[in-house]
Write a structure and sequence with these properties.
The chain is mainly beta. The chain has a domain of 109 residues: UDP N-Acetylglucosamine Acyltransferase, domain 1. The protein contains one helix and 33 strands. The strands form four sheets. A twelve-stranded mixed sheet has the order 3-6-9-12-15-18-21-24-27-30-32-33, with no helix packed on it. A ten-stranded parallel sheet has the order 2-5-8-11-14-17-20-23-26-29, with no helix packed on it. An eight-stranded parallel sheet has the order 1-4-7-10-13-16-19-22, with no helix packed on it. The structure holds coenzyme A. Coenzyme A binds next to β32.
């Protein structure tokens, strides 16, 4: 078998599908889609025009949480949708129930869980883990190895440096009470979060805040300010030359 395309799948003009790839029921591939080798595309997944998918990637997988997982899933989630001209790298895994916009890059080995909404022109870097129910605004860049916890809200033009850790549960899996308080961080427009920093549950990183490398963000920050250290303390203002242009 060179590859398998279910008869109910729709394949647009000029698509190329690599060796040993499986395109399942009701998948829709737009025009000029390129699928690498050994890719699995689960039922109903919709790929827009010009989407490229690297070898060994898995698209539209339904979550199967363990009995002991915090996340509970009732029934099938709606299919994964990927917008025009988005590129998915090699060995990426993207779940059902997620929507990704146009002109995005999901780099090699990245993983995006269910019920995420990712806007246009977003970069999800190599090996980044995006957990369930995360929202990411347009032009945001998330660099190699960052961990984006469930329920995080990231707005437009945010920069998340390599190996950033976000967290959402101060009870670390203990007590029933924790379900009332689980909350991811909110990272506002244009904020920059430095390499290896940690953001605690429910914290808001304000618009254009700058979190220094290695900082521990325990409290909400002020817009346009730099924070450093453990715990992170206000250090100085962000220079005007580094602020997003407003025009
Ligand atoms: C915040 C940052 C820009 C340095 O800021 P700065 O104001 O220029 O700091 P300076 O180098 O002038 O150092 C001022 C003081 O802060 C300390 N300091 C610098 N960076 C620090 C950090 N990240 N955490 C804690 N202390 C820091 C310095 O040791 C120095 O202390 P001292 O006065 O006791 O000697 C830098 O630490 C940083 O976080 N860069 C981001 C790197 C990154 O994550 N990039 C992502 C893409 S790779």
């Amino acid at each position: 078998m060179v590859n398998y395309v279910h008869p109910s799948a729709t394949v647009g003009e000029n698509c190329r599908i690599g060796w040993f790839s499986v395109t399942m029921e009701n998948v829709s591939l737009g025009r000029d889609v390129t699928i690498g080798n050994n890719v699995t595309i689960y039922p109903g997944t919709i790929l827009g025009n010009g989407v490229t998918v690297g070898d060994n990637s898995v698209l539209g997988k339904q979550p199967r949480p363990a009995k002991t997982s915090t996340v509970k899933i009732d029934g099938e989630l709606p299919p994964l949708v990927i917008g025009d001209n988005t590129t998915v790298g090699t060995g990426a895994v993207i779940y059902a129930g997620t929507i990704i916009g146009e002109n995005c890059l999901v780099a090699d080995l990245a993983s995006i869980r269910e019920k995420c909404t990712i806007a246009d022109c977003v970069i999800i870097g190599r090996g980044v883990a995006v957990e369930n129910q995360v929202t990411i605004g347009s032009y945001t860049k998330i660099q190699t190895g960052a961990y984006i916890t469930a329920y995080t809200i990231i707005e437009d033009y945010v920069f998340i440096a390599p190996m950033v850790t976000t967290t959402n549960d101060n009870y670390m899996g203990r007590t029933q009470e924790r379900f009332k308080y689980i909350k991811g961080p909110t990272i506002r427009r244009g904020a920059r979060v430095g390499g290896g920093s940690i953001t605690l549950p429910g914290v808001t990183v304000a618009q254009e805040s700058f979190i220094a490398a290695g900082a521990l963000v325990t409290k909400d920050t002020e817009p346009g300010m730099v924070y450093k250290g453990l715990p992170a303390k206000l250090a100085r203002v962000v220079p005007p030359t580094e602020m997003l242009k407003t025009d």
